[in-house]
Amino acid sequence: PMLDSQHHYDVANVFGAWNHTTGSPDVVVQVLDTGIDTAHPDLQQNIWQNPGEICGNGVDDDGNGYVDDCNGYNHADDTGNDLLGGHWHGSHCGGTIAADTNNGIGCAGVAGGDGSPDSGAKLMISLGFGDSNTGGFAEALIYGADNGAQISSNSWGYTSPDVCEQAVIDAIDYYNDEGGIVVFAAGNDNSEACYYPGCYDGVVGVAALDNGGTRASFSNYGEHIDISAPGVDVMSTMTDGDYGTASGTSMACPHVSGVLALGLSYQPTTSKDELLMCAYDTATNIDELNPEYVGNLGAGMIDTFA
Asked: Given CA atoms 4, 116, 269, 175 in this order, what sign does their dihedral have?
């Protein structure tokens, strides 16, 4: 019922893609953020389940080094039993990727399925921003790569240009070596400077556009951007069962992650390089709308259907 408020899907040409695929439970997207409200009525069907773990028994059942990581892990606070965190940010990003679609309530995720149980892409919950601590980003990326996530969606970054932890760069490289795709928000500093990890050449760096295809006034830009997506007044799930709009490259990033998840759902055997090349080659040219930023918004606006 809230789909009419998700104007950004029309801009990114999502509806045409849904005639071909609405997602697949075989595709796992790691959301490395503040956590996800697994009790939200619109985030019930598409939460990743660790098949080797028994929830809440205090035992590392699958021997992967993490206790009770049934739906992911809170790497900031070192627990598998608190995956909500203290902020709505992760729930909003996760909802854009795979809120339960066609279920008669709320909003729709890009790869949220067709309304039948277990039909959308799965959200692996990873926290770098916990209730008490911030950190564990490198560990979380390695966890995602080792535990079956093909895509990692990261709507965070360092707050000063040219600053990054080598361990995080190494973890991104590891994710890539394992065949995964790491997507990062470019940052909201209205800057051409290199804000890591979004400007690192090992990630898909995403800039934000408004619904007219113009660069959002806050979005970072530059030759390091790979692609752009809607990031202004994006409607998605919040915590406590709520919904709301938010703006930022944080909102553009999960659009791209969701579209890549649809691509893998449609063609599971495609390689990472083929999928990314397809996304870049088919992106909508937005140079005329952004004459001052030609070459600084990546391949253009992501075109989901194409």
From this structure: positive
Containing H/E element for 30? strand 28-33
Q: What is the pLDDT of residues 181-227, one digit of tens each?
A: 999 999 999 999 999 999 999 999 999 999 999 999 999 999 999 99
The distance in angstroms from the start CA to the end CA of the chain is: 26
Tell me the per-residue pLDDT of 110-139, one tens digit each, with 9 for 90 and over: 999 999 999 999 999 999 999 999 999 999
pTM confidence score: 0.98
Tokens of 251: 């909102």
What are the residue numbers of the active site?
A: 33, 89, 250
Q: What gap in Å lies between CA 204 and CA 218, rounded to an integer? A: 19
Distance CA 93, CA 254 (A): 6
Determine the Cα–Cα distance for residues 155 and 10; give it in Å rounded to an integer.
Answer: 22
User: DSSP string covering 94-111, please?
Assistant: HHHHHPPPSSSSS---TT
Count of residues in the chain: 306
